[in-house]
């Protein structure tokens, strides 16, 4: 019996080990594979990257594409502007109930719950209140949509859009309550699917944004809704409508925005330290420790079809880099593979001269 079990278990171990290895090699971080994907699919991405002020990648640089959560960069920048100007204090305490009313369960990949758990474990929630600075960090570092909706309301969505215009972003559409918009895409009256989908597709953008604003106000007034998002309504066809209507911008706009952060020109010295702390990126998993850099920050985002990233880098030799890359119309499989390699791609660009030159050869017009 023992021998029989041995000959059953060993092949299974070998098979599962092989599947695991194949999965890692296929989906694991691979910056070269990402570069090859871009060479092979020139109409599915846009990129603009610089190194020491020189353009190293420039494809579809002025094309407006959906930003997904990368748009939260603008919210953070304006929030820090208000803190730096003395209008707000980073130490202001906000009741978590005022934030949680905008949380839509199962729509953010667990981001908001993970942020709250981190705040709880680090004793940062006191008497149900949390500091404004931690809310901003939670929006960027955990990508909490609820935090974004709360902040857009707190610091005024209209003023955020005016500030965005003052930043000189020439190819950037206005921000709106993109999370609340998920309620707009619901089908509570259970009209036939084809008619429902057609209604969503034909709804004007202005009407769509107006209804998203209305849902946001309803969530705020009622401190959330008793009716949860019906995930069954949000199939891939409906998600595509939502994804396509997200706030958009060009990679050149976001790369230049990253360059402004590198140049420390947006705020006072105190404000610059604050924004760098908010935008700080974790090191890639394969990089356990690195003391050769001063700044490495940015923000990305994704939907079922979109993958975005905008980042900046400065090393101790005063080399500086900025990179913005946006993908759209991705298949689920390609999206998964690219997500695994995106940070490795940008880290290689910033730290590997040979790879950086390969990018320049392949992706510069």
In terms of topology, how is this protein built?
Blueprint: H1 2-27, H2 31-40, E1 45-51, E2 54-59, E3 65-66, H3 72-84, E4 93-95, H4 96-100, H5 111-121, E5 129-131, H6 132-141, H7 145-154, H8 157-166, H9 181-184, H10 193-202, H11 205-221, H12 236-244, E6 248-249, H13 251-263, H14 269-279, E7 293-302, E8 307-315, E9 320-327, H15 332-351, H16 353-363
Antiparallel strand pairs: 1-2, 1-9, 3-6, 4-5, 7-8, 8-9
Helix pairs in contact: 2-15, 2-16, 3-6, 3-14, 6-7, 15-16
Strand content: 5-15%
Question: Could you say which structural class the secondary elements and strand pairing correspond to?
Answer: alpha+beta
Biggest sheet features: 5 strands, antiparallel
- Shape type: globular
What is the arithmetic mean of pLDDT?
A: 92
Distance between the termini: 67 Å
Question: How many DSSP-defined strands?
Answer: 9
Task: Estimate the helix proportion, in percent.
Answer: 40-55%
Order of helices and strands: HHEEEHEHHEHHHHHHHEHHEEEHH
Poorly predicted sequence stretches spanning 5 or more consecutive residues: 1-25
* Total count of helical runs of at least 4 residues: 16
Q: Can you list the strand order of the major beta sheet?
A: 2-1-9-8-7
